[in-house]
Amino acid sequence: MIKDKRRLGMIFAIVGTMFWGISGTVAQGLLQNGVTAQWLVCVRMIFAGLILVIWSFFTIERKIWQEIFSKKNFLSLVVFSIFGMIPSQFTYFKAIEAGNASTATILQFLGPLFIIIYLAFATRILPRRIDVISIVIAILGILLLVTDGDMNRLTLSPAALFWGIMAGVSQASYTLLPRELLKKFDARAISGLSMIVGGIVLLPFVIFQKVPEFSPQNFAALFYIIVFGTMFAYLLYLMSLKFIPPETTGMLSAFEPFTATILTILVFHIHLGFFELLGGLLILSTTFLQSISIKRK
């Protein structure tokens, strides 16, 4: 039974992160056509959140909704929205806007390492040897990714590097923050409400922006981002946290950069040099190091 739940959690995490990886490539096309990261994040959160809340409204008992909206629980949800939901989405799309979906998702994968660092401070226990090795390999991977082996130049803009690293930090906080809420309530309701709250918080920053003109193709792209790249991706990711620890969920997010990199190369014909690819693989290799250490426990 425990193994079945763990397997289900892993499937949720993998499919959710693949949806997000595809979403990054789709979003890159919109961002290159005049759509701003702020506008896209605000719209996707509000509409995806509304869909999730409406869906869960008909399947969750009214007394549970009352518990969610109690002062303590709703305050926790607002904190998750502001410090988890908004940063995880905004920094990721800013990284795509400043660079591309491939490098943004690879740098975002630094999230599990920030989880390791956070847990070390929170528990006051020094990281294990395998964790330290993972961190060193990830730093080396970043250097190769942004320089392509030439330390005298950057192949990735400073803005793309900054937002990519911040996306990793935000992903770590997003993974760690909602665990208590998820233990008590349905993931659809929590993720949907937090998206709506996050979208409302961002609304003043985008309400006066010019609404971009959309072709049928761009509408289809926005639909995918809202329904699959946001609603289902976040829902599956949050549901995975019910069955597997945040470290494992974070590690399985390696499927996101793999998906985004392949699609970015195929769709946008972006060339990645040998050392850039090597750097990306080094960052992702920390997944396997951490997986080995978990199996040995």
Describe the structure.
Helix 4 (71-98) crosses helix 5 and helix 5 (101-108) packs antiparallel against helix 13. The chain has one domain. It is built from 14 helices and no strands. The protein is mostly helical and 297 residues long. The radius of gyration is 19 Å and the shape is globular. InterPro entries: AA-Vitamin_Transporters (IPR050638), EamA_dom (IPR000620), EmrE-like (IPR037185). Residues 8-146, 160-289 form the EamA domain. The chain crosses the membrane at residues 12-31, 37-58, 74-93, 105-123, 130-147, 159-177, 189-207, 219-239. This is DMT superfamily drug metabolite transporter. Keywords: Cell membrane, Membrane, Transmembrane, Transmembrane helix.
Which features does this protein show?
297 residues, 80% helix, transmembrane, membrane, EmrE-like, transmembrane helix
